[in-house]
Recover the amino acids of this structure.
């Protein structure tokens, strides 16, 4: 005896209703979430531990009535509970419909389970980054003295981004900035993908920027869960530029905050940090300028005093030298006549002595002593070799002269 599909499915519906009359708490990961008019359609999976292999799969429905009730009960965290990749613990009742098949009707969700699971994943991520020596890697990147060319990652509609820009660009110091905006999702499943993609673009043009700012406008712990991503944290840690994070939370700290160069509580605090960094450099330059000015003034003053001293010293020395020269001129004026007379007398005596010597050594004296002068053809003869036999010579004596002819020569 055969049955129609409807009859078979009706039988299954009665079996399910009979054997699963009450709702039960179920743990599952959200593989996909679709919504329409506040109705949510959930694809549920369970994966093998330490693997992406799916070992169980089902569909669930959260009707609008239950959605509004749970949203009111859980509050702002509720929206983050219904995100792909999140594990939830929900109270569900199995229902089988002859046409639509088996579905789980979501009646309640326990947010504490999801938060606990996320915290466990967060700690595992931190330990993994620590084992890879990535927790402090970005903090060791040199922070420029002046932050002017800034890459900002945020959502254009985020209140935190608007606060950051207003605070930075209307600063009292009148500092100018070159801001390049890179849009990203700041919550949900697209945070990791979009942020990593934009950081890769920035890293390829790292020479164009001084720092990277990642900001959003606050939110619940579940809102911030996307910033605990291992891949995102690893990308931030390995960036060649310093990362300044201002996710916008006062108490919680995301993994992205931990691996950033500098983590600040709010986007406005990031703007203040940048302004203070630039102000410190400006103050340093002003102080250095003041020190240079004071040193220059001190040096000028010292050199001026030295010049005055040398001026006085030279003036006094000139006066002393002038007086000494005047005294020397007076002395010379007084002494020159006597000196000249002495030198004149000395020269006169020397001349007289020379005259006496000349008179004693001259030819006349020699002639008087019996010597004679012999000339041949007008030339005085000093050697016997200059004479020949029959030569005619002129002989000068003391008191006269005579001519003679050589008839004999003896050496």
């Amino acid at each position: 005896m055969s049955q129609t599909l409807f009859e078979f499915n009706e039988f299954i519906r009665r079996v399910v209703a009979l054997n699963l009359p009450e709702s039960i708490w179920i743990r599952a990961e959200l593989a996909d979430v679709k919504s329409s008019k506040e109705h949510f359609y959930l694809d549920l999976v369970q994966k093998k531990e330490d693997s992406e292999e799916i070992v169980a799969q089902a569909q669930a429905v959260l009707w609008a009535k239950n959605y509004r009730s749970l949203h009111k009960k859980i509050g702002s965290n509720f929206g983050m509970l219904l995100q792909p990749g999140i594990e939830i613990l929900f109270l569900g009742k199995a229902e089988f419909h002859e046409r639509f098949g088996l579905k789980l009707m979501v009646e309640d969700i326990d947010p504490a389970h999801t938060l606990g699971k996320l915290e466990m994943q967060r700690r595992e991520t931190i330990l993994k980054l620590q084992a890879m020596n990535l927790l402090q890697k970005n903090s060791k990147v040199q922070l420029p003295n002046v932050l002017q060319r800034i890459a900002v990652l945020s959502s254009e509609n985020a209140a935190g981004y608007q606060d950051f820009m207003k605070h930075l660009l209307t600063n009292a110091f009148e500092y100018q900035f070159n801001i390049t905006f890179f849009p990203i999702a700041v919550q949900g499943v697209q945070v990791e993908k979009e942020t990593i993609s934009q950081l890769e673009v920035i890293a390829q043009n790292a020479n164009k920027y001084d720092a990277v700012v990642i900001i959003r406008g606050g939110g619940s712990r579940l809102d911030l869960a996307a910033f605990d991503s291992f891949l995102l944290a690893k990308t931030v840690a390995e960036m060649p530029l310093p990362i300044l994070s201002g996710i916008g939370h006062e108490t919680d700290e995301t993994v992205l905050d931990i691996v950033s160069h500098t983590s600040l509580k709010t986007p406005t605090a990031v703007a203040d940090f940048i302004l203070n960094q630039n102000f410190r450099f400006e103050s340093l330059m002003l102080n250095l300028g003041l020190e240079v000015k004071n040193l220059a003034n001190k040096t000028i003053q010292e050199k001026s005093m030295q010049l005055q001293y040398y001026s006085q010293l030279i003036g006094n020395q000139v006066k002393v030298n002038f007086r000494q020269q005047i005294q020397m001129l007076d002395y010379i004026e007084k002494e020159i006549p006597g000196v000249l007379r002495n030198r004149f007398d000395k020269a006169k005596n020397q001349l007289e002595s020379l005259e006496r010597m000349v008179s004693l050594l001259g030819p006349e004296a020699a002639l008087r002593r019996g010597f004679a002068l012999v000339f041949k053809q007008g030339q005085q003869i000093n050697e016997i070799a200059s004479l020949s036999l029959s030569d005619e010579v002129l002989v000068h004596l003391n008191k006269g002269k005579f001519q003679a002819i050589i008839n004999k020569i003896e050496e």
